[in-house]
Amino acid sequence: GAGVSQTPSNKVTEKGKYVELRCDPISGHTALYWYRQSLGQGPEFLIYFQGTGAADDSGLPNDRFFAVRPEGSVSTLKIQRTERGDSAVYLCASSFPGTRQFFGPGTRLTVL
Amino acid sequence: ILNVEQSPQSLHVQEGDSTNFTCSFPSSNFYALHWYRWETAKSPEALFVMTLNGDEKKKGRISATLNTKEGYSYLYIKGSQPEDSATYLCASLASGNTPLVFGKGTRLSVIA
């Protein structure tokens, strides 16, 4: 596609549920990043993929968060046992290695 | 760990006014500084990528400067228009393949 796309654009869930957020990067971009923006904060890094492998997952807040990119293109961020504090805008970005990151519009997650 | 600070947190200006805001970042371990413009429900849009001390970049009515020795960048908007209303984020990079470290952003509202 022409840009990075993310689905869904909005997700409302109940505390304790499982959610999956999807990112479709720009075709050919090997690097893919997930960030999270909580209310009143700037986007914070979660995880970075180079190809299929997670090159840096130091930003994942705890083991309820997991992300995959099995074919080196689409990535899914998975959150288990959601908590109210997980409510945020989840941003995905892609790039060629070492170049400018292009962002998707984000998924707004609300945990009730 | 990089710590990127932005000020002011929010700004209200009248249409036609010029304005500027600040981004400060650690001057050690510096690779690049990015400025993004983020409108609600849209993708963050890259404005500038700056790498060299003394760099000045311009895009229409928006310009930015960079001082890597003292660790700050200014973003200027000349003759603000209502469509400039957005959150302006700056982000620092420690190397080409590391994640962006964002400030909290400056929320600009331009009143017609």
Q: Main interface pair?
A: A-B, 29 and 22 residues
The best one-word shape of chain A is globular
- Taking the alpha carbons of the first and last residues of chain A, their distance comes to 33 Å
Mean pLDDT of chain B: 93
Question: Which whole number gives the mean pLDDT of chain A?
Answer: 95
Strand content of chain B: over 45%
Please provide the count of β strands of chain B: 11
Terminal Cα span of chain B: 41 Å
Gyration radius of chain A (Cα, Å) is 13 Å
Percent helix among the residues of chain A?
under 10%
- Helical stretch count of chain B? 0
**Oligomer designation:** heterodimer
Largest sheet of chain B: 6 strands, mixed
* Biggest beta sheet attributes of chain A: 7 strands, mixed
Topology diagram in text:
The complex is a heterodimer of chains A (112) and B (112).
Chain A: E1 5-7, E2 10-13, E3 19-24, E4 31-37, E5 44-50, E6 53-56, E7 65-68, E8 75-79, E9 88-95, E10 102-103, E11 107-111
Parallel strand pairs in A: 2-11
Antiparallel strand pairs in A: 1-3, 3-8, 4-5, 4-9, 5-6, 7-8, 9-10, 9-11
Chain B: E1 5-7, E2 10-14, E3 19-24, E4 32-38, E5 45-50, E6 56-59, E7 62-67, E8 72-77, E9 86-93, E10 101-102, E11 106-111
Parallel strand pairs in B: 2-11
Antiparallel strand pairs in B: 1-3, 3-8, 4-5, 4-9, 6-7, 7-8, 9-10, 9-11
